Amino acid sequence: MRYICIYCVAVSLSFLTLAPVSTATSNSFGDSQEDCVSSEDLCSHVWTEGLRLASIGDFDNAAALFQQVFNSEQQTDYCRELDDLFQIVELQNAMKTETNPVLWSAYAEKLRRLYHCNGMFPECYEISKQIFSQTRTVTSGLEVVHLCLAFHQIDEALSFIKCLELRFARDSDALTAIAVAKCSVFLVAGKTETARGLVREICSDSIKTPEVLLQLAKIQAATRQHVSSIKSLTRCFESTPQSVLPVIKADVLNSPEFRPIVSAPQFKMAMETQSKQVDTCCAKARENLTNIVSVNR
Q1: pLDDT tens column, 166-187
Q2: Which of 38, 49, 77, 259 falls between 20 and 30 A from 208, CA-CA?
Q3: Exposure of 77 by Cβ count < 10 A (0-12 exposed, 13-18 middle, 19+ buried)?
């Protein structure tokens, strides 16, 4: 249904300069309602009705309602949303015909970010699976697992993890990252003891990537392994690019997993840890970290 609305909005807006605002449509939200609700609420109501009309193919009246919104004081917020929708439509169309795998991946990553920023998690999940099918990297595979958790799709997350374990059976670093993700799945499923037992078996010293260290630290804190959690957190900060470190630290302070230890001197000392990384060529690292932060919020 969301896809239908996106496409219909784009089509409807092409009629904006042509479609007259019908008296019947304009008066369907009459003066009595305007007296009862705020201008912002009325715009939201008109916008929703416009989407409904567009989804059933009534483009003239849908365009008329959208025109009312654009003429209102709240037009800025809706224009920003529509700009994202237009980008989504353009990217979807571009991906259908793109044969260059590098360009396809760039389009897909941008589309995934737009889905995520607009709260379109089912679409974000589907495009993430497409990205994994193209790239076949453990990082893109774990992004799918994280999105399964965001939807609380435990069985699907575990099933996908099994596929990753088979795919990367000979890659010890990948298997460690997958094991950390599996611990997260068990925690979300309420199987804390299972997660605690599994995380103790993980050789954390072999983990080098900050996104996996951050996830490990949260799991260790959630399973009351606080000393290990602080150690993992310190290593995460040291390996995080300097430009994104403030964002990661803010996420740590807002994470419920760390609330029991935020006043501990060892935790406060860990929060003072600075990055040891030179902030160059790290765009992908920044993206991976911010993805982990966004999904866990």
Answers
A1: 999 999 999 999 999 999 999 9
A2: 259
A3: middle
Lookup: tokens for 207: 């983990």
Cα dihedral 173, 178, 180, 186, rounded to 10, equals: -160
Of the candidates 244, 249, 255, the residue with the CA atom closest to the CA atom of residue 285: 244
- The answer to whether the CB of 216 falls within 8 A of the CB of 232 is yes
Structure tokens at 164: 């990753």
CA separation for the pair 129, 145 (Å, rounded): 10
Task: Return the beta strands (E) in the chain as ranges.
Answer: none
How far is Cα of residue 76 from the mean position of the Cα atoms in its chain?
A: 24
208 neighbors 173 (Cβ within 8 angstroms): yes
Q: What pLDDT, in 10s, does the model give residues 107-130?
A: 999 998 888 877 778 888 889 999
Residues 6+ apart with CB under 8 A from 42: 29, 33, 34
Helix (H) or strand (E) holding 139: helix 138-150
The answer to whether 140 and 128 are in contact (CB under 8 A) is: yes
- Copy the structure tokens of residue 39: 């201008």
pTM, full prediction: 0.66
Record the tokens describing residue 59, joined without a space. 């483009």
Check residue 171 and report its DSSP letter.
-
